[in-house]
Amino acid sequence: MSIKPAPRTVEPLALAFATVLRRRRLAQDLSQEALARRADVSMRFVSLLELGRHMPTINTMQKLARGLGMPLSDLVREAEDEPPQE
């Protein structure tokens, strides 16, 4: 008998951050790879963030905000204001 892990629930804030990150990246016509280079993170990590599979640390959020050329406070505020996804 094998035991299957419980399905992961996606936190609403992770989904909101994912939406804002992708929207901001696309608005600047950046690929995930380009943003990853600017933010000094892996492209795979950017992909997982945009899918809502991971929630970044505050340090990573700062790197992403700098990579997007915006203050971290604006990035967080947009994520907080993002309507819940159903």
From TrEMBL:
One Pfam family cited in the UniProt record for this chain: HTH_3
InterPro entries: Cro/C1-type_HTH (IPR001387), Lambda_DNA-bd_dom_sf (IPR010982), TransReg_Diox_bact_type (IPR050807)
TM helices/strands, residue ranges: none
Gene3D superfamilies, sorted: lambda repressor-like DNA-binding domains (1.10.260.40)
Matching SUPFAM superfamilies: lambda repressor-like DNA-binding domains
Domain named HTH cro/C1-type: residues: 21-75
Protein keywords: DNA-binding
The protein's name in its UniProt record: Helix-turn-helix domain-containing protein
Species name: Paracoccus mangrovi
